[in-house]
Amino acid sequence: MISAQPEYAHGRGAVLIVDDEPLILRVACKVLEGVFDEVLEASTGEEALEVAQDHAGPITLLLTDVIMPGIGGRELSETIRRSQPDASVLFMSAYTEDEVLLEGIRVAEVEFIAKPFSIEGLRAKVFEVLEKRAAS
Length: 136
Description:
By secondary structure, this protein is of the alpha/beta class. It is 40% helix and 20% strand. Strands 2-1-3-4-5 form a 5-stranded parallel beta sheet, sandwiched between helices. Strand 3 (59-65), helix 3 (73-83) and strand 4 form a beta-alpha-beta unit. Helix 2 (45-54) packs parallel to helix 3. It is globular.
């Protein structure tokens, strides 16, 4: 059973989900519908930058794959946070921690979820990130 959503999560801006794997992108979008006002999606870092630039409201959460062709998750998050400094970032990757470290991300220092993830696992991690956001 999927746990109840924290009250503060409803109506809180948008989530931008970025993954070059269509199935992961589709599942993540479906799982996070109803948690945020809007679910924005992109299949590349470049597309995500366009989506973020065209979006009028705040981006509450950037959920991004770490390793993608072109602009990767680390560079994407740094660019998005320049225009959306309050955006939280949750990285996801199917690669081992060592490969993620090579991309410049220290897993212990960021919010991270390993792929494949379960529906409950993704929701729980998103709510954990939102709770940290609300507490800061």
